[in-house]
Amino acid sequence: ITFKPSPDSRPNGVGPAVSSVLAFLNLDRLPIHIGEFRRARERARSSALSKQVYGHVKAEVLKQTLQVLASVNHLGNVAGTLDQFGDKIRDLGGLIGDDVIGGESRRGRGDDGGGGGGGDTDLFDDLTGGRVNVVTGAARGTGELAKGVLGGVAGIFTKAGKGFKKSGVQGFARGAAQGVVGLGTNTAAGAVNFVARVVEGVDATIGTAQDTVKGGQDAAAATRRRLPLAVRGDGVVRPWTQHDANGLRLLRVARAKTDAIGGKTRPFASDRFEASLAIADGRVLLLSNARVGVVAAAEERVEWVLTWAQVASVRVGEGGDDDGGAVVAIRARGDGARAMRLARCENNARAREVVARVGDVWAAARAASVGGGGGGGAGGGF
User: Fold this and answer.
1) Rounded to an integer, what distance in angstroms lies between the CA atom of residue 335 and that of residue 51?
2) Tell me: the pLDDT tens digits for 67-109?
3) S-S: 287 plus which of 86, 162, 218, 275, CB 3.0-4.6 Å?
4) What's the longest Cα–Cα distance across the chain?
5) Measured between alpha carbons, how far is residue 100 from residues 104, 174, 274 in Å?
6) DSSP character for 338?
7) Are the C-beta atoms of 358 and 317 separated by less than 8 Å?
8) How many CB atoms neighbour CB 342 within 10 A?
9) Distance in angstroms (rounded) separating the CA atoms of residues 197 and 203
């Protein structure tokens, strides 16, 4: 059995404990062999035979446990833990700036220039061809360290300027103090991430060397037999289907352009999968516990997305008869030409099915929000 965890496709809400367990279960061609239990021409009591079977099974379990422990990826575990530690340092900087110094809270990565961004990762992957080794790990880590330092320095000026505009000299002093705190925490987090990237590079280099010794990279590569099982927000494990599995994959990888310089993000990546509804022109209406949006499946590109808290109504729009096509019209809260989002379907019957499914997920999100589950999600729509 080969089991390779993929931290890049892991939801952001996964805590350090689960991440460590997944890294711990990094198995490379682990042999599974259950020794047979055979008794022939032997007279024994049923209780004695049961005891022998139990002892045999216990010994086999212990043997397999020791083989699993021998295949642990310790370096991957260290890198994952360091990433979590870097995030906690950034959060600590936000808490200090908000609670001790006073002023506006800055939750989340990137608010003061020190966080990571999807656009930077995409650019680095393009430059390196996706290769991971000691050199690329050190280069990526240096970039994260530099970004933390430069973002912290820039934060001093931006926070001071915002504070001055808001409340004069007093705001200037408070903003400058927040910027200094941000400089320290961003620099520390960047240093921790630098070490994490170097450890990842060392781990990848060692793995490549081991693969070469064992017969080449192709011989040791983990081959996915099928896409992961899509489990919805209700936690019910349903039979695996290719359609839902493809929808879960889109949830993790679909990207949206978010700024003028081409930076990209994955708006659905940290959400729980709810449904993937095929509509016209190779598009998919993707539903999560927090968002709804249209994705061009072939390009893995998000065309528009709204949080459930932004949705005001869902209905079948004007689209002609059953053979003439129809649209699902989702109105966002607020006025203006951009208040309506459309999802084109092949016919009215399909549009009604989509509206019914969207309504179910929307109602569940509202109920979760009222009950404290936070069904609105973070981030806005476009």
Assistant:
1) 74
2) 766 655 555 556 656 666 676 776 766 666 555 455 444 444 3
3) 275
4) 96
5) 11, 11, 40
6) G
7) no
8) 14
9) 10
For 125, other C-beta atoms within 10 Å of its C-beta total 15
d(CA 336, CA 322): 30
Question: 189: closest CA among 98, 82, 81?
Answer: 82
**φ/ψ (deg, to 5) at 43:** -95, 125
Q: Cβ(245)–Cβ(253) under 8 Å?
A: no
Rounded to whole angstroms, the Cα distance separating 186 from 116 reads 11
Q: What is the pTM of this model?
A: 0.48
Give the total residue count for the chain: 382
Amino acid identity, residue 110?
G
Note the pLDDT tens digit of each residue in 223-265.
667 888 888 877 788 889 999 999 999 998 898 876 554 556 8
* Tokens matching residue 20: 């460590």
Cα gap 343→358, rounded to integer Å = 12
Confirm if 264 and 124 have CB atoms less than 8 A apart. Answer: no
Q: How far apart are CA 30 and CA 322, in angstroms?
A: 55
**What is the residue-averaged pLDDT of the chain?**
74
CA separation for the pair 185, 149 (Å, rounded): 9
Sheet strand arrangement including 340-345? 311-316, 326-332, 340-345
DSSP label at residue 259: S
Residue 300, token pair as written in the block: 């893995």
- For residue 211 the two structure tokens come to 């693969």
Q: How far is Cα 92 from Cα 7, in angstroms, rounded to an integer?
A: 23
d(CA 155, CA 184): 11
Higher pLDDT, 190 or 13: 190
What distances in angstroms separate CA 118 from CA 10, 109, 252, 346, one per listed residue?
A: 14, 12, 13, 34
C-alpha pair distances (Å), 137 with each of 6, 19, 100, 121, 211: 16, 20, 36, 12, 19
The tokens describing 198, both together, are: 């170097």
